[in-house]
Specification:
By secondary structure, this protein is an alpha/beta fold. It is 45% helix and 13% strand.
Length: 963
Amino acid sequence: MPQTEAELEQKLIERLTGLGYEPVTLRNAEDLKANLKTQLEKHNHIKLSDTEFKSILNHLDKGNVFDRAKRLRDKMELSRDDGTTFYLEFLNTEHWCQNQYQVTSQITQQGNYKNRYDVTLLINGLPLAQIELKRRGLELKEAFNQINRYQRHSYGADNGLFQYVQIFVISNGLNTRYYANNRKQEYKQTFYWANQGNNLITQLEDFADSFLEKCHISKMICKYIVLHESDKVLMVLRPYQYYAVEAIIERVKDTDKNGYIWHTTGSGKTLTSFKAAQILTQLPKVHKVLFVVDRADLDYQTSREFNYFSPNCVDTTDNTRQLVEQMAGDNPLIVTTIQKLNRAIKSQRHEVAMEKLKDKRIVFIFDECHRSQFGETHKNIVKSFTQAQMFGFTGTPIFADNAASNQHGKRTTKDLFQECLHKYVITNAIADQNVLKFSVEYWGTVKDSGKRKDGTLITEPKLDRESFENPERISLIVDWIIANHHRKTHGKKFSAMLCASSVDTLITYYDTFKNKQKQGLHDLRAIAIFTPGYNEEDQDANGLIGEPDFNISTDVSSRSHSRDKLNELIADYNQMYQTQHSAKDSQAFYAYYKDIAKRMKDRDRENFQDQERADILLVVNMFLTGFDVKKLNTLYVDKNLKYHGLIQAYSRTNRIFGELKSQGNIVSFRNLKENTDQAVALFSDTNASEEIFIEPYEYYIEKFNKGVQELRAIATIPNDVNKLISEDDQVEFVKAFRNLIRLQNVSKSFTEFSFSDLNLDEQTFEDYKSKYLDIYDRTRSKPNEEKESLVEEVDFELELIQQDEINVTYILKLVANLQRDRQTDVTSEEYQSQKASILELIGKEAQLRGKRDLLEKFIEERLPTLEPEEKVETVFQDFWTQERVEAIGQLCIEENLKVEVVNQMIADYKFSGKEPLRETVLSACNEKPKLLDRKKIFARVVSKLLDIINKFDDALGELGEEE
């Protein structure tokens, strides 16, 4: 008989007790608070009065999770009853093993609903780690969803002590994952623990022994959680990041040797190096830590994050004197660019100031140390600092096979940094689901289906530059991109990059996109950047990516065709995004570069406005290394790539982001098959292709058709879903159909996808989808009471079935067509059939279902009364506005609220994406609520507000923009 959840819980508690945790029985919030008082007294060697403890609870009950994480790490200045002051410690972060450890289970808290939590680890009486269990065989994601529900429903209750949780653990016994307390993250941002050799530790018992051991969990909380100031969230290091930082610290403590970290692109090297720099500054023997990046990689967010940790440690100017002053000053951490560091070391003007640092212990940490400049920098540092210790981070080390010659000869990463201290290659990252696999398509002689519109083949030309840059060939490639971009990027929900072999080729691409847009052939937003007059011919010949160059000549006599083109495309950019950039000098050009980087990265943010997006970024070398954007999923390649240049470029596409992004798409218009295989062999192993690239199209079609058989075994036809009464049967159906959605999501990204290959026609698929959404709606609209529902815990992954183009504006166009047909000779039967189709479409689209009653009301009641001269769009706008006003008025009557304050809260939410604060909601009440009622009123009003916003303001399309 399978192990029950209760048995799993009991075994875990026994294991933790054996590891030195004190078992304690706490049934509710009052028990928790009483125990907290006792543990704080024990930890601080003090006796607290009830008044003093009440003061402590008030101190703790402030702010959000991020604020509380900071408070946890600080001491409280406690005013005692006798008038003295005592500095109360909540957590010993310096000697992390010297804390009080307890384990309890089944604590019940009453918030909006009553919840009972599985296993809680208490450190000094505060719940700092929470473990949610599911019986073997259940999806781990169900435990993740349950914690999310607790966060919404009850963690904030009773002084919000559970908002001090730093780390969550989820397990079904067989699989165990952990993650930081961050409401914004998704399931894919939960991690397995592993040993130093990257072997996963998934069994709960083994995980408890290695990760939940008292000193280790404390060390993770005290040293390896990052308080990310920019986003105000907690982040916890993954195992390979932990081992890398530990290796660097040990190296600095015990030796004066260098070292490098080989962590694949997309694995979070910057976070790892940030944490390493942070800890090294605390070592007494280290005078300073210099974190060195390329100028191209020093973005706004990196600068801000380092400045939060060490004020004014980042200097983003080109002023070398400021760097020299920083090095001579007291700041233990300095963030600078490799270009500025070279100038500071080599300049005779700064020789005296730098001489004072010659024999100091300075640790240099290099981000992206595969860049070619590190050969020269290494030489200069060794010459200038006798006690220098250097560490490099790279996703693609330079080996003898891929080393390029320069004035210093062929220098490998090992030559410069000696020993590899920790390795985590792309196959490790894919196996751990930390990055995505690639889907690579080669269009040319490799693939016979590359056809012109007239049916003739697009074949790869002879290997000469003139043939590759032929405008007719480029025009055909642009036609292909226009035809397939929507499919590759899931309806432009993701951005793409196109890398060209030279500036001239890029200009031809840009002009071709622009001309075809003027002809009305596409509506893609193509932007571009390059350094004018920069010769890429050599780089294209060796397949390596050249370094970004921001130097713009201000000499008017040197103006060239490419310089004029750069000014033209920047002018187009300014017009598209209402900016004022130029390329008048290097500083202005760098500002343009940074604006593009920010625009692409900001698309990852929750409150990003779609009108600010770029669909395709055209580049030669820029942005092909060290540029992480989650909402970029496709790379179009018309450039010779090889070795680390190829892996770096491909890896722009494979960052994890939700279920919709199932792989990174590479579309190569050159035959790079051999180069790709060589690069994979060099940076992982010879037989790694199966692990790095997704399966062929036929594989997913076969799996889909097998899934159809499994679905029909549960519900032979869509209407049979209505007969699934038990929750177990409904869950089986949901999982079976969800499997089909996932497989279809991958299959549709292939150019050859056709519904005719599937053993389920499109209409039947849509009918099953409608039933799937019906179950989702039912489980989400139950009365406000404690719900222990199996179906509710399942993740429906609605992002896989939403289509942004099917919005209110789209429906309105169909309605307008229906109205025109009504005024012509269309029969009553045809009219009713068209109307039924529109109503059916509204029911099938996940994001329109909440608006269904209003849209139906307009079609059924208002549309038949339309006069011939009235425009459907105008009448609908008036109808929609009136219904919105009435809905807000109804809310104000039900909850006795001030209309003007409610309207302001809605406007603020639409602008910031943030829910209103409790004080704001309570200020909207005409009568001040009683103290005990405030929490319920706040939750209820916010819920109704969000319903109104979802119903009237989301998924409107152009209708919303016109408002």
